[in-house]
């Protein structure tokens, strides 16, 4: 595997379900990010991890819970989501900060029913 | 606060030149980025400007004026595969906290 991978690519879940999104980067980067991309809206930076430490939480609701066990893996745990949370969730990584060139994964298309 | 504006859509002809503008307002500016995103795919990095002036990379060039809060992406010798969304993003750092925001993107259609 090369670059940034994400699983699953598509996810449909009910509002009472709990699910997790997974991201893995094979680039030796130290920073990883979660973004949300909704139709006709700009990419929104949700969480920033640098050397496994969370450095940013951009006012994201607590029903989204990130986890970064090491510099190569990032998870986004989802519970009691709302229909408006349906979007494309993108993971990205960079050498050390958000102001470095970021490499994006293919995304998980999430639908909340 | 931080804000980015770019046109929603543009259309150009194969072989032509197109300029996509981006204006921004931010504090603690630390660089302006352009990404390309084809429909259904992830964004890919195109360019990075932190100093004023023009950065050229093959058929793509990016310009920055920090005093005007303005950037543009110039695409030359347009090809059909250049049909995509082009995202302007601004990085900043204030009080040790990173801010990184994207514009809504400009959807470029290249016509034969």
Architecture overview:
- The complex is a heterodimer of chains A (113) and B (112).
- By secondary structure, chain A is an all-beta fold.
- Chain A is 0% helix and 57% strand.
- In chain A, the strands form 2 sheets. In chain A, strands 2, 4, 5, 6, 9, 10 and 11 form a 7-stranded mixed β-sheet that branches.
- Chain A is globular, with a radius of gyration of 13 Å.
- Chain A contains no helices and 11 strands.
- With 112 residues, chain B is mainly beta.
- In chain B, a hairpin with a 6-residue loop joins strand 4 and strand 5.
- The chains are: A mainly beta (113), B mainly beta (112).
- The A-B interface holds A 4, 40-45, 48, 55-56, 90, 97-99, 101-107 and B 4, 30-31, 33, 41-45, 48, 87, 89, 91, 93, 97-98, 100-105.
What kind of sheet is the major sheet of chain B? 6 strands, mixed
User: How much helix is in the residues of chain A?
Assistant: under 10%
Parts with pLDDT < 50 across at least 5 consecutive residues of chain A: none
Shape of chain A: globular
Alpha-carbon distance between the termini of chain B?
41 Å
